[in-house]
Write a structure and sequence with these properties.
Elements (H helix, E strand, L loop, with lengths): L1 H16 L9 H30 L15 H31 L2 E2 L11 H24 L2 H6 L20 H17 L2 E2 H17 L18 H10 L10 H5 L14 H11 L1
Parallel strand pairs: 1-2
The structure holds zinc ion (ZN) (2 copies).
């Protein structure tokens, strides 16, 4: 995050916003700048990614599903825009620790023996690490107490659209993103790789809510895609995973997506149309 902060400091904040006497290393200045940057960045990333996905990939027939809500897209956007400020502020505290030097992020490939190989290797490790933690956190959020008080809000959307991707209770959203922050305090990673992965996980979160089930045949068994996550929204206690089906298979919560078997939400819509 210090890449973004440094760029903004140089181009806008130092010349136009803060007084000269306030050093860019001042913790309160950093907290204030990060809060604004992360909230605005969060809104931009959510709205742009979800809108592009909605217009290009989302199957609009799903809006006619019997379990879709009236004005659902509007409600999802409203829920997300209310959640993003607090969700972002909790992330800001993690980013602040990161830019104050407590993480294992590094600036140059000279700092690792792996060199540029660290990009694919650390990225794979990041995906596996966060996928494992998110599975168990998400499963915990389905326990009676946490479901009722936090996670229920995200399951209001039985047939989600891409705009449901960030429509959480803010604490729920932060808790599920916590492994992405934690990783860099435990393992090394190049700063640009981390930034790219942060954008990637946001795009992925939107993509598993887009109702587009076109996963390459060979990966259907391995990747936790939109079809798996759709069944999570419809049937609750299955397919908690984020990227892979591995932990659902190990944890006994795997369910072959109904749409892979020809019984998905589009079939419900066809049947509804036949009846009317
Ligand atoms: Zn859930
Ligand atoms: Zn979801």
């Amino acid at each position: 995050m210090d890449i973004i902060l440094d760029l903004t400091d140089e181009s806008i904040l130092t010349p136009y916003v803060y007084p000269e006497s306030l050093s860019p290393k001042n913790i309160w200045r950093q907290l204030c700048s990060l809060t604004i940057l992360v909230i605005l960045g969060g809104y931009a990333l959510y709205l742009i990614t979800a809108a592009v996905n909605y217009y290009l990939f989302f199957d609009k027939r799903l809006l006619q599903h019997p379990q879709s809500l009236k004005d659902q897209v509007k409600q999802e956007i409203s829920c997300s825009t209310r959640a993003i400020p607090l969700m972002s502020f909790l992330s800001v505290l993690m980013f602040l620790a990161e830019i104050r030097g407590y993480s294992k992020l590094f600036d140059s490939f000279d700092e690792t023996r792996l060199g540029k190989w660290s990009i694919p290797l650390y990225s794979a490790s990041f995906i596996f690490f966060t996928d494992s933690l998110i599975y168990w956190i998400h499963r915990g959020l389905h326990s009676r107490f946490f479901y009722k008080n936090l996670h229920k809000q995200h399951h209001k959307w039985k047939v989600p659209t891409p705009f449901a991707s960030h429509a959480f209770h803010p604490i729920d959203g932060f808790v599920q993103s916590f492994p992405y922050h934690l990783y860099v305090f435990l393992f090394p990673m190049h700063k640009w790789t981390y930034l790219a992965l942060f954008v990637f996980v946001n795009v992925w979160t939107v993509s598993i809510h887009d109702g587009n089930y076109k996963v390459p045949m060979r990966l259907k068994e391995i990747i936790n895609g939109a079809a798996h996550h759709m069944d999570h929204h419809l049937f609750y206690n299955y397919n908690y995973g984020q990227f892979f089906t591995f932990w659902d298979r190990v944890g006994g919560s795997y369910r072959n997506p109904s749409s892979f078997e020809g019984n998905g939400p589009l079939k419900d819509i066809e049947e509804k149309e036949k009846r009317t």
